[in-house]
Design a protein that fits this description.
Elements: E1 5-6, H1 7-19, H2 29-40, E2 47-48, H3 51-61, H4 64-83
């Protein structure tokens, strides 16, 4: 059975790893997942099932506007979660 991969998920986690360390907010895994959840619910998914699809989407995700969109949404997610972290 073919496996589906959401490349936006990978892109968001990469952007979180790039931006989050430069903040003073909590760095626990719960907050990281809350940030990812917030961002992924506001960005379009990019599902692929093949190597060719993976390569095409990665090429598209490197476009300047796409990168800006992800950066803005992840930045907002970091701010929202950081100011009101969800702690169990």
């Amino acid at each position: 059975m073919a496996e589906l991969v959401n490349l936006m998920e990978q892109t968001v986690f990469n952007k979180i790893d790039e931006m989050w360390p430069n903040t003073e907010y909590c760095k626990c895994e719960n907050c990281r997942m809350d940030i990812a959840t917030y961002a992924l619910n506001r960005l379009p998914s990019k599902y692929v099932q093949s190597l060719k699809g993976n390569m095409l989407c990665r090429f598209e995700s490197r476009r300047i506007q796409s990168n800006i969109d992800v950066t803005v949404v992840v930045g907002k997610a970091i701010e929202v979660v950081g100011q009101s972290p969800h702690k169990n």
